[in-house]
Amino acid sequence: MEQNKDKLIKISGWTLFIFAIGFFCLQAGYLLAHERFQVEYIDNRLFYIINILCVICLFLAILLLLRLTKRLLLIVASVLGLFVIVQGVLLVDSNQVIKNITSVSPDFEHVFSIKENVESGEAIYYRSYYGILARPKETLPNEIGGEYKVEWLADDIAAFTYKADDNTVQQFIGTYGDRGSGRSYYYVGPEIHGIWEGNNIEVISNTDGIFVTENGKTESFGWDNIVQFGTLAVVLKKSNEAVWTISLDKNFEVHSDASEQTVGNISLYKATMEMNQSTTLYYKTSKR
User: Fold this and answer.
1) Distances from the Cα of 265 to the Cαs of 62, 119, 213, in angstroms?
2) Is the dihedral of CA 174, 177, 178, 184 positive or negative?
3) pLDDT band for position 258 (50/70/90)?
4) Could you report the per-residue pLDDT of 181-225, keeping only the tens digit for each?
5) How far is CA 7 from CA 1, 11, 21, 58, 133, in A?
6) Please, which residues bridge with residue 30 across strands?
7) Are the CB atoms for 184 and 244 separated by under 8 Å?
8) Between 2-37 and 45-65, two packed helices, what is the crossing angle to 10 degrees?
9) What distance in Å separates the CA atoms of residue 284 and residue 226, rounded to the nearest whole number?
10) What is residue 38's predicted lDDT score, i.e. its pLDDT?
11) Which spans in 114-221 are helix H?
12) What DSSP state is assigned to residue 286?
């Protein structure tokens, strides 16, 4: 029984040691990739969190594999505590210089990431690669001036709603998928041509633009006031302020032939800082 316990302790110790080596190699690989390919962690705080995990695994491995005197154990524990405190302070300080806005998709396959330079106000959207690595993709057209929120409209569509520095409400959409073959670009507006209804809301897309009717009140948006993100969503704007986002649901099918029957649903999401949910709309007809 005692022999089995010692064996389990050794296995656990070596496992933790391997984890520590793995975290160290991950950090070394990241520093090399950052220098060569200009990639970053999807969230800057990961660098300090991984450092902390590395030394904790190493400390526990030493504790399990070696017989330390009380004095030596106290020294090692003190060094560990000091290291963790320093990394924690650096983590907090780093987020005060570059504010990380990160959200993971409901299916855990995508990460929405925005990094805001607190001093300059510049906010950059990062595209994730290989899970935790990312590259800057584009700068948000408006600086973030106040509160914000992230809502996943689908597993591959994230809506970032925020108050801009000019006190307007803006929306930026992160898209990570496709509803077509994936080989060609298409425009959302023409793809949803027709009439859509659901929950006392009607949306009409035609050659003049997109019209949204909610509780009997209609708002019209010409094509000049419609901004597309990727191939999955459009933001409808009025007076340089976001009003609605229309996104293609997972079951929506893009056809190369316009004469083919429309399949799937779309979602309508209001641009507001209040907590709200998107509304699913169903295709009614192509005429009006």
Assistant:
1) 56, 42, 17
2) positive
3) low
4) 777 788 999 999 999 999 889 999 999 999 999 988 999 999 999
5) 10, 6, 21, 19, 37
6) none
7) no
8) 150
9) 22
10) 86
11) 188-191
12) S
**Hey, what are 77's tokens?**
């524990």
Distance CA 219, CA 212 (A): 5
- Give SS3 for 85: helix
Q: Where does the pLDDT of residue 58 fall: very low under 50, low under 70, confident under 90, or very high at 90 and above?
A: very high
Residue type, 173: I
Please report the DSSP string for 4-26 in residue order.
Answer: HHHHHHHHHHHHHHHHHHHHHHH
Rounded distance between C-alpha atoms, residue 180 and residue 72, angstroms:
63
Least confident of 2-6, 89-93, 282-286: 2-6
**Is the dihedral angle over the CA atoms 38, 41, 45, 50 positive or is it negative?**
negative
Distance of CA 39 to the CA centre of its chain: 16
Could you tell me which of 160, 162, 234, 159 has the C-alpha nearest to residue 192?
A: 234
Mean pLDDT for the stretch of residues 20-46: 93
Separation of alpha carbons 148 and 99, rounded Å: 13
Taking the C-alpha atoms of residue 131 and residue 160, their distance in angstroms, rounded to an integer, is 20
DSSP character at residue 86: H
| Cα–Cα dist 288/281, whole Å | 17
What angle do helix axes 70-97 and 45-65 make, rounded to 10 degrees?
170
Count how many Cα atoms sit within 13 Å of the Cα of residue 278 in the half-sphere of its side chain. Answer: 23
Beta bridge partner(s), residue 134: 40, 128
Residues β-bridged to residue 173: 159
The residue assigned the tokens 């990460």 is 111
The predicted-structure confidence for 273-287, as pLDDT tens digits, reads as follows 999 999 999 998 766
pLDDT at 286: 66
Reported pTM: 0.86
